[in-house]
Amino acid sequence: MANTTLHARSETSPATSAHVSVPVLGATLAAFAAISFLLCMLLGFVAPERGLHRPWLQFYLGLTGFDLRSLVLGLLQSVIFGGYAGALIAAIFNFISRRFG
Question: Transmembrane segments in this chain: where (predicted)?
Fold first, then answer.
């Protein structure tokens, strides 16, 4: 965990701002989105009649069903969007923490 640093403000030490590693949070959210997508696809294979997977699939562009092309495309979109969201959230957090923390 050398890349992750989170400094908490202590009553006995001077004020320090918190810092979140941009690549680590980006990779974490990318992995979370990819795993969530894979679980959604698995549900579609295991219980297609339930339809619980359909609301998730509407957020992915270009999916045609439960085939290999859709699996790869959805996984790629999950990693890209998750990484983007995590990196942006970490960068915004670090900026606000330095500015106001």
Answer: 20-47, 68-96
Indicate the domain borders of the chain. 22-100
**The two three-digit tokens of residue 49, written as one number:** 């009649």
Q: Backbone phi, then psi, for 61, in 5-degree steps?
A: -85, 135
Identify which of 30, 29, 53, 50 has the alpha carbon closest to the alpha carbon of residue 41: 53
Distance, C-alpha 37 to centroid of its chain: 11
d(CA 101, CA 91): 14
Radius of gyration of the chain (CA): 18
Cα distance from N-terminal residue to C-terminal residue, the chain: 23
List Cα–Cα distances, 54 to 47, 58, 78, in angstroms: 11, 7, 16
Question: Which pLDDT tens digit goes with each residue over 2-55?
Answer: 565 655 554 544 556 789 999 999 999 999 999 999 988 888 888 877 766 667
